[in-house]
Every structure is written in structure tokens, then in C-alpha cells.
Specification:
mainly beta
């Protein structure tokens, strides 16, 4: 109930601001993901992984430099699992996790003619809908007997089980530059950081080892005004 009241108060306070208008568009970019977890295995690393981001954007801007931005985005958050045992490498593969998310960001822009610098903060919720593996691994029996590596088929789909938490939520912060072209067409260049607050693992067991995604993104967006934007 308290959260609902806070949301209503925030909505009313924003709706009382001087209006400017809507922008819609899209963006795409690069994502560098960092897996945050704890492992007790020696010579084991979780290395950053590369991915892509694409989003539909809807923004409502106000005359005083504030803007409320939301939309729907796809993002691939990957990491590399590397394990070395003596002189062998029984596991070295990339896990690509695919998410659909809804971010909400409150921005403030400092305008300088056709250029503006903006800062933003907000949060996001999302669904982890697919996971793929690329690389090589070795089963427990193979590691004991010294068997050959098992090459993982490129794009092998890992099935989710009851221990996976498919819901994701987190906070985000961004800094960016907007460039206004003719007919109010706008190009946005953003540097954004997402900090996940939910583990990829359900904490239903004692001493659960949690895994969190932190993602750094660089995106380029193109937005157009809807109606008369003041």
C-alpha cells in the first residue's frame, strides 16, 4: 500500500510539471556484462561477456529539462566460465542469457542550443527467457578419467529448471548526449549501467550461491517528436 501511494504521489507531481511532448524511437548498442558470484573452486573464473541491446523508446519531456523515459528492450547478458584443472581446461564456455526488460528512467537535461547533456536514474524489471552455451565442457566422469572434452554445440539451449529465478529487477544510472537535427529529429548517445538486485538463482536452499548481473552499455538512439513538441 505504501509503495502504491508513493507511486501515485510521484505520478501527480510529474503530471503537474509544464508539459512539452512525446518522443518515440529506438536504440541499439553494445553490452558488457559482469557476473557477480562466489565460487569455492580453485582456478575458476567468471569473466565478463559481450552482448547486444535493442529497445523501443517512449519519452515524455517537460519544459524544465526533465523527461520520463520508458519502453521495451532486449538485452543479451553473457559471461565466460573458465575452469583449469592441473594442466587441462575442463570447462571454457560462454553462457549467453537473453532478457526482455522494461526500464523506467527519470532524466534531467542541460541544453546548449542543438546539444544537450543529460543525467538519468531509474530502475527496470525483466524476464530471463532463454540461455545458450558456446564453447567446451567436461563432465564429472570425464574429468576423473581424463576423458576428452565435450564440445558444446554452438548456441546449445540450456533448459531452465526450478532453481532458476526468471524474474529480474534492478537499478540503472546513465549519462548521455542528445543532438537535435532538422525537424526535431534527435540522436541520443548513452552510457548506462544496470545493477541487478535479483539473483539468477532462487534462494530456497541454505547457503545458496547467488549470481547477479551488472551490465555496462553504450547505446545510440534515434527519436522523433509526436505532434508539436515545444
Amino acid at each position: 500500500m505504501k509503495k502504491a501511494l508513493l507511486f501515485i504521489l510521484l505520478f501527480l507531481s510529474l503530471s503537474s510539471l509544464p508539459a512539452s511532448g512525446w518522443y518515440i524511437g529506438g536504440e541499439g548498442g553494445y553490452a558488457l556484462n559482469f557476473m557477480s558470484t562466489v565460487t569455492t573452486w580453485q582456478n575458476t573464473e567468471y569473466r565478463p561477456g559481450h552482448g547486444a541491446e535493442a529497445a523501443f523508446i517512449a519519452e515524455y519531456s517537460f519544459d524544465n529539462g526533465l523527461a520520463l523515459t520508458t519502453g521495451a528492450r532486449y538485452i543479451g547478458k553473457s559471461f565466460v566460465y573458465y575452469h583449469k584443472y592441473q594442466n587441462a581446461v575442463p570447462a571454457d564456455y560462454l553462457e549467453m542469457n537473453h532478457f526482455l526488460e522494461i526500464p523506467v528512467t527519470l532524466r534531467y537535461a542541460f541544453k546548449f542550443n542543438d546539444i544537450s547533456l543529460y543525467l538519468g536514474a531509474g530502475g527496470y524489471i525483466g524476464i530471463w527467457f532463454l540461455s545458450q552455451w558456446f564453447g567446451k565442457a567436461q563432465s564429472a566422469a570425464e574429468s576423473v578419467t581424463g576423458g576428452a572434452y565435450t564440445e558444446i554445440s554452438p548456441g546449445y539451449i540450456m533448459k531452465h529448471d526450478g532453481g532458476d529465478n526468471l524474474f529480474e529487477a534492478g537499478l540503472l544510472g546513465e549519462i548521455g548526449l542528445s543532438w537535435y537535427l532538422e525537424n526535431d529529429l534527435r540522436l541520443d548517445f548513452s552510457l548506462r549501467y544496470d545493477c541487478s538486485l535479483t539473483s539468477l538463482v532462487k534462494g530456497y536452499q541454505e547457503n545458496t550461491v547467488n549470481r547477479y548481473n551488472d551490465t555496462l552499455m553504450f547505446t545510440v538512439g534515434c527519436l522523433v517528436p509526436i505532434g508539436d513538441v515545444k
